[in-house]
Amino acid sequence: MTRVFRTKGLTKVYDTGEVQVRALDGVDLELMAGELSVLLGPSGSGKSTLLNILGGLDHATSGKAWFRELELTALDDRGLTRYRRDHVGFVFQFYNLVASLTARENVQLVTDVARDPMRPEEALEMVGLKHRMDHFPAELSGGEQQRVAIARAIAKQPEILLCDEPTGALDSKTGIQVLEVLRDVNERLGTSTTVITHNAAIRKMAHRVIWFLDGRIDRVEVNETRVAPSEIVW
After folding, report:
1. Residues 168, 195 contacting (CB under 8 angstroms)
2. For residues 214 and 47, what is the distance between their CA atoms, to the nearest angstrom?
3. Are 212 and 41 in contact (CB under 8 A)?
4. Per-residue pLDDT at 10 exceeds 80
5. Would you say the C-alpha torsion 48, 37, 67, 27 has a positive or negative sign?
6. How many CB atoms lie within 10 A of CB 3?
């Protein structure tokens, strides 16, 4: 199986002036292409910091990280911007939609600058929102807004999709709908997908589960048998 990400001794230290916070403490990790992986752990355990470095949003203090054969930790800001543009889709807890634009127009913000995008209409149809594409965010439910955010992320056909608490602001029923979309994207498009969550039940739908504690990987689990999101008990 091909590796999509690899890290070696990855460390991130935040210097607040009075104290140093070691958000990542020598992380060695491998994530595989085409898999849906889940990162679990309490707040402050390093999950989001790792995701930000893998996504090219932040720099490591020391250690190395690779996307395939590209060494991310050797890139400058311009190189990281190019990497994000060409390879990465992001989904966050809060949807970050432009209120004055329709669902279609929010997705088009990405497709206008991507190298090989799908049509906005196609992306919205994939997430079940073909009938809502001309509605504004205020006219959509929280789950629908998150699905627009997912459509925006996948419309440029990224190799990897990084999701930070994508169900954190949603109730269980709506959250399951969003997880169904993420699983569908992973299976239909083959997009390597990583999901950060506090909800340990979500691990049951993943190929690989990485548990974090105090900036380190506590353990890694590989699921031989996965369940559908609809079978997850929150």
Report:
1. no
2. 10
3. yes
4. yes
5. positive
6. 15
Q: Record the tokens describing residue 113, joined without a space.
A: 């600058």
Pairing state between β 160-164 and 20-32: unpaired
Q: For the chain, what is the mean pLDDT?
A: 93
pLDDT at 19: 86
Helical packing angle, 142-154 and 172-189, nearest 10°: 20
Domain spanning 3-231, CATH class: alpha beta
Q: What CA–CA distance (Å, rounded) separates 60 from 53?
A: 7
Burial of 234 (0-12, 13-18, 19+ CB in 10 A): exposed
User: How many angstroms separate the CA atoms of 45 and 34, rounded?
Assistant: 25
Query: 56 is written with which tokens?
Result: 């090219």
Say what the pTM is.
0.92
Q: What residue segments make up the domains of the chain, in order of their start?
A: 3-231
pLDDT tens digits, 106-141: 999 999 888 889 999 999 999 999 999 999 999 999
Burial (CB count <10 Å: 0-12, 13-18, 19+), residue 223: middle
Segment holding 213, helix H or strand E: strand 208-213
Q: Which amino acid is it at 171?
A: D
